[in-house]
Amino acid sequence: MVDTKTDNDYILKVTDLNVVLQNQTIIDNISFEVKRGTSLAIIGPNGAGKTVLLKTLFNLIPYTGKIEWSDNLKIGYVPQALTAQGIPISVREFLSLKNRSKANDALESVGLDSKSILDKLLGVLSGGQLRRVLIAWAIIDKPDILLLDEPTAGVDIDSEEAIYEMLKRFTNANHITLILISHNIHIVREFSDYILALNKCIIFFGKSQEIMNPELQRKIYGEAHICIYEPVVSI
Amino acid sequence: MIETIIYSLLVATAIGLAAGYLGSIMVLEKMALVGDALSHVALPGLAIGILFNFNPFFGAFIFLFASAIIIWHIQRVTKLSFDTIVGSTFTLALAIGVLLVPTPDLLEALFGDISKIEAFDAVLAITVSIIAIVLTRFIYKKIVLSLISEELAVSTGVSIAWTNLLYLLLVSLVVAIGIRITGTLLVGYLVVTPAAAAKTISSNLYRYMTLSSIFGAVSAFSGVLLSNYFTLPPGPLVVLSGIAIFGVVLVLRWSKIITNV
Questions:
Q1: Scanning every residue of chain A, which has its alpha carbon at the shortest distance from the alpha carbon of B195?
Q2: pTM score, whole prediction
């Protein structure tokens, strides 16, 4: 069950989490904790269960175990993909679905010129613009925690760095906790405090600088890994 | 006679407005077949009303409600698209309905008849249309958000399953009253074509839903007006009016006289 009571220091506690979909184990008995105001990157190869984990934290996927969020949380979320094509909705209308009055501010925060973009259809935006609009959506009502599923997918390298710089500034300034999924280990090292390496179970949990260790990279991306039970890991 | 014509035009406008409004979601949801198939389900309900001598609208209504709940439940369990579920299940209802409806009433049930409309029918149809529009307005944004991303919708507290159920029930309601004008064969059109025309030229959601409602109302109004003038069944004339609007919109779009409004 999703609960909303944890110690004040921690914004999220996950205990003995298991996800089985169509008789396949996707998440195998993982436990971890996330401290308020920190940033955590979830990494792992394709099919490791990263997106499933993020969706499970939202209660979108059935699971066993315990997910405890701290009380009265406002969550901002950026999904990996969305269906904007074929829906005649403008950026203004999209952001208004969440907060009518702060669309301009949110767009300026993510480096977009609100005047030129507000009346464009969501479906005609470039990949980079769309990702920024999605981040604007996530931060529009000053959340306590941001969950970002590959927030820069399909974005060129320069824009990717700019988006993460902006995110870092915004989360630090507003003491926002960040959980993100990324495949870019340089981004992970630069812009997150901790990493959780996942391949059904937790392979590694620790400081993000560790990701540059070739031995660890091989362990995460290169070798078949056998999951064994590990106790709660925390930061 | 004049009273009946006025009632029929009022009813047509109200139903066209509601059908266009709800239909704008249906086209976005890629549920175009749902309105069509649901209308087929109404036929056995109409038949029971005719056979047992009570208002066929209520018979259709009960069948449509039950069907909407069944579709919704199957979709939740199987995760199949709404179109797939109704396409594979409910054509059967049309066959059963055609066999059950007495032959003299069949043409009316299939293609509509608004010539015998009375004050009660008019008040009922207008009230139901207003209720359907008002309730849909409450869930419109939630549905659009869930179409863009289910995760985004859930993250803002939207219950997608319950929102979909309410929407299907409201569609059933509009289909049940729309049958009076277009008949069971053509009511699916009334829900889909105005929205398709509006989508071609809309530059945002507000204009899309507004244009869809207006196109629905204009095509229903003009179809019923022509029906009264030529003493022909209203259903086919409503469809022709709507297709004419769609055709004009397409020509204006292709000739770049209008781009997006």
A1: A88
A2: 0.81
Number of helices and strands in chain B (H, E) = 11, 0
List domains and CATH numbers for chain B. 2-254 (1.10.3470.10)
Q: For residue A106, give the nearest of A119, A91, A126 by alpha carbon.
A: A91
- The position carrying tokens 């959601």 is B205
Give the C-alpha separation, B233 to B116, whole Å. 12
How many whole angstroms from its chain centre is CA A45?
16
Mutate to test the interface with B, among A58, A73, A77, A97 (most CBs of B within 10 A): A97
Residue in B20, B29, B38 with CA at minimum distance from that of residue B143: B29
- Shortest CA distance from A56: residue in chain B: B151
Helix (H) or strand (E) holding A27: strand A24-35
| Separate counts of helices (H) and strands (E) for chain A | 8, 10
Question: Which of chain A's residues have a Cβ under 8 Å away from the Cβ of B150?
Answer: 60
Using CB atoms within 10 A of its CB, is residue A40 exposed (0-12), middle (13-18) or buried (19+)?
A: buried
Chosen from B29, B155, B200, B202 to mutate, greatest number of chain A CBs within 10 A: B155
pLDDT category of residue A223 using cuts at 50, 70 and 90: low
CB contact under 8 A, A60 and B154: yes
ipTM for the whole complex: 0.78
Cα A224 to Cα A230: distance, rounded to the nearest angstrom: 18
pLDDT score recorded for residue A28: 92
Cα(A55)–Cα(B153) distance, integer angstroms: 12
Using one digit for the tens of pLDDT, what is the confidence trace for B178-220?
887 777 767 778 888 999 999 999 989 999 999 999 999 999 9
Q: Is the pLDDT of residue B34 over 80?
A: no
* Residue B56 contacts residue B101 (beta carbons within 8 Å): no
Contact B206 A93 (CB under 8 A): yes
